């Protein structure tokens, strides 16, 4: 795949995390968490611009030191608890257009996803371009079939889907979930549907050893263990 696409990587990093204060720039394995996404996007070589959308001066400083652009600050409207990721992306694209800059493709990278790598971003963008897709999402397979999940009702365990209770795991369709790391988009199609892609996303599958939501201190500890394993495997 040729590098240097007319593409922008947008790292969405507002201030004001409540569950883990300062989570976006909290140190993780020797670096502020935000830096991993910035470095992966820069190293991938597929983006004309790698930028951070933030309302926080300290986040902006760290982002610039890591090599990202912060050409404008996020508005108050998209900095609140109820602003969606699509709200932020729309604002970024509109602000660039007001400045006379347009992009053909974009990647939205979450700031608390240290497992994002240059290789994953290249693979996703390559799939996006080669398949002429509207969007690409990294997903991870559920380790246990959700079709055999149980609920507690009236104090007892019951199968949510009794018809699957006796089925072998290998006979059930694999089910995947969003890895919560990044998304890649064809900008024109994204804007046309305001982020609600009618044709959905193409998947790239990532291993569960490289996926971890980070919402509390125990999540951080587990993420560090997985990160060490990922780094060791890539060094072999």
Notes on the structure:
This protein is an alpha/beta fold. Helices cover 31% and strands 20% of the residues. It has six helices and eleven strands. Strands 1, 4, 5, 6, 9, 10 and 11 form a seven-stranded mixed β-sheet that branches. A two-stranded antiparallel sheet has the order 2-3. The longest helix has 19 residues, at 217-235. The chain is globular and about 60 Å long. The chain starts with 6 loop residues before the first strand and ends with a helix.
Overall mean pLDDT stands at 94
DSSP strand tally: 11
N-to-C terminal Cα separation, in Å?
25 Å
Oligomer: single chain
* Fraction of residues in β-strands: 15-25%
Uncertain runs with pLDDT below 50, 5 residues or more? none
Along the chain, the helix and strand elements come as EEEHEHHEHEEEEEHEH
Count of alpha and pi helical runs: 6
The rough form would be described as globular
Rg calculated over all Cα atoms? 19 Å
Main sheet attributes: strand count, strand direction, barrel closure: 7 strands, mixed
Helix coverage percent of residues? Answer: 25-40%
Structural class: alpha/beta
Topology, element by element:
Layout: E1 7-12, E2 27-28, E3 31-32, H1 33-44, E4 49-53, H2 57-65, H3 85-98, E5 105-109, H4 118-130, E6 135-141, E7 150-153, E8 156-159, E9 176-178, E10 182-186, H5 187-193, E11 202-205, H6 217-235
Parallel strand pairs: 1-4, 1-5, 6-11
Antiparallel strand pairs: 2-3, 5-10, 6-9, 6-10, 7-8
């Amino acid at each position: 795949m040729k590098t240097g696409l007319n593409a922008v990587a947008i790292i969405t990093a507002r201030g004001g995390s409540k569950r883990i204060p300062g989570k976006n720039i909290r140190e993780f394995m020797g670096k502020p968490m935000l830096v991993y996404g910035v470095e992966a996007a820069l190293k991938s070589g597929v983006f004309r611009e790698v930028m951070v959308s933030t309302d926080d001066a300290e986040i902006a400083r760290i982002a610039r030191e890591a090599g990202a652009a912060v050409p404008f600050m996020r508005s108050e409207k998209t900095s609140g608890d109820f602003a969606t990721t699509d709200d932020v992306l729309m604002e970024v694209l509109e602000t660039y257009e007001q400045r006379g800059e347009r992009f053909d493709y974009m990647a939205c990278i979450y700031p608390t996803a240290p497992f994002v790598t240059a290789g994953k971003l290249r693979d996703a963008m390559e799939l996006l371009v080669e398949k002429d897709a509207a969007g690409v999402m990294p997903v991870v397979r559920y380790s246990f079939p959700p079709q055999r999940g149980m609920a507690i009702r009236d104090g007892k365990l019951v199968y949510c889907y009794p018809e699957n209770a006796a089925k072998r795991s290998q006979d059930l369709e694999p089910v995947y979930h969003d890895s919560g790391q990044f998304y890649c988009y064809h900008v024109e199609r994204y804007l046309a549907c305001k982020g609600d892609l009618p044709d959905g996303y193409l998947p790239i599958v990532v291993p569960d050893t490289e996926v971890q939501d980070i919402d509390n201190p125990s999540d951080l500890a587990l993420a560090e263990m997985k990160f060490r394993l990922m780094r060791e495997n890539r060094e072999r």
